[in-house]
Amino acid sequence: MTAEKKVLALQDVRIAHGSRELVHGVSFDLEPGGVVGIVGESGSGKTLTCRSALGILPPGLRLSHGSIAIDGQDISGLTARQWTGLRGSTIGAVFQDPASYLNPSLTVGSQIAEALRVKAGLGRRAARQRALELLAEVHLRDPHRVYDRYPHELSGGMQQRVLIAAAISLRPKILIADEATTALDVTVQAEILDLLTDLRESTGLALVVVSHDLAVVAQLCEQVLVMRDGVVVEQGPTASVLHDPQHEYTRLLITEHEQYGLERYLDRPDLKETAGAGH
Ligand SMILES: Nc1ncnc2c1ncn2[C@@H]1O[C@H](COP(=O)(O)OP(=O)(O)OP(=O)(O)O)[C@@H](O)[C@H]1O
C-alpha cells in the first residue's frame, strides 16, 4: 500500500507533558474503509493518541516525537486555521457522553443545519434538507420529527446518532469513535456499532475505534492495538491478537471479557480463518 492511499498514518507518536512522556510511541496506518481499534484500561493513553490526531491535545501537552499524516498531509506545522479546515472535512470524532456535545437550547436538526451553513456554506433550505438526509443516514426513524427535538428529548443512543450525523456531515475520510458507546446499554451499543459498520461499508469511512472493552474492538476492527501505561504492548490483526495473544496483559483482557461474550467473536469463522492463515 502506497503512502498516498493511507488516510491516517501515525509513526512512533510520543506525547509529553513538559519533560514527562505520557505516550511512548504509537504507530499504525489506516486505509480508506479500514478499521483500527485501540483497547486498554483507563489512563493507558488511548484518548491522548486520538487527540493528537485531531490536533486537540490538552494545553501543555505536545507531540514530542514521531509524525502524523492525515490523508497524506503531515500535521506538523499546521496552523489553527488549517486544523479547523481539516477537522470535520477530513477527520471527525465522536466521544462518550453525547449530551455534553449538544447545545441544550437548540433543536438537534438546527444544530446540524447550522454547522452545514457555516462549514459547507449551504443556504438555509439546503442545509435543512441535508441535515434531514443525514438523520436518515444514521438510521433515525422519522427524521422530520427528530429534527425538531431538543437534545434532552432524545435517548443517549439517539443523541449519539445525531452526533455521528454531525461528524460525517462534511463527508470526512476518518471517524474517531472514542468510547462512543461506553455509556450506552448493551443493545444500543450494538446498534451504534452496526451503524458505524454500515457507514464504513457504504461510504468507505475509515474508523479508529477506542474502547476499554475488548469485545467492542473485536466486533469492529481488523487491526488492534493494546495499550497500557502509554505503551502499545501488543498490536496486530484482531484475529491473531485474540487467538494467540503474546502479552500477559492482552491475555488478562481476554479472560476478563470472556464472561461478557467475547467468545462470540472468538468463534467467528472469518476470524478463525484469518488467524489460521497467519500461522
Ligand atoms: N491534560 C493532561 N495533563 C497531564 N496529564 C494528562 C492529561 N491528560 C491525560 N494525561 C495523562 O496521560 C495518560 C493517558 O491519558 P489518556 O486520557 O490518554 O488515557 P485513556 O487511555 O484515554 O484513558 P480514559 O479511558 O480514562 O480516557 C494518563 O496518565 C493521564 O493521567
UniProtKB/TrEMBL annotation:
<protein>
    <recommendedName>
        <fullName>ABC transporter domain-containing protein</fullName>
    </recommendedName>
</protein>
<comment type="similarity">
    <text>Belongs to the ABC transporter superfamily.</text>
</comment>
<keyword id="KW-1003">Cell membrane</keyword>
<dbReference type="Pfam" id="PF00005">
    <property type="entry name" value="ABC_tran"/>
</dbReference>
<dbReference type="InterPro" id="IPR050388">
    <property type="entry name" value="ABC_Ni/Peptide_Import"/>
</dbReference>
<dbReference type="InterPro" id="IPR027417">
    <property type="entry name" value="P-loop_NTPase"/>
</dbReference>
<feature type="domain" description="ABC transporter">
    <location>
        <begin position="8"/>
        <end position="254"/>
    </location>
</feature>
<keyword id="KW-0813">Transport</keyword>
<keyword id="KW-0547">Nucleotide-binding</keyword>
<dbReference type="InterPro" id="IPR003593">
    <property type="entry name" value="AAA+_ATPase"/>
</dbReference>
<keyword id="KW-0472">Membrane</keyword>
<keyword id="KW-0997">Cell inner membrane</keyword>
<keyword id="KW-0067">ATP-binding</keyword>
<dbReference type="InterPro" id="IPR003439">
    <property type="entry name" value="ABC_transporter-like_ATP-bd"/>
</dbReference>
<dbReference type="InterPro" id="IPR017871">
    <property type="entry name" value="ABC_transporter-like_CS"/>
</dbReference>
<keyword id="KW-1278">Translocase</keyword>
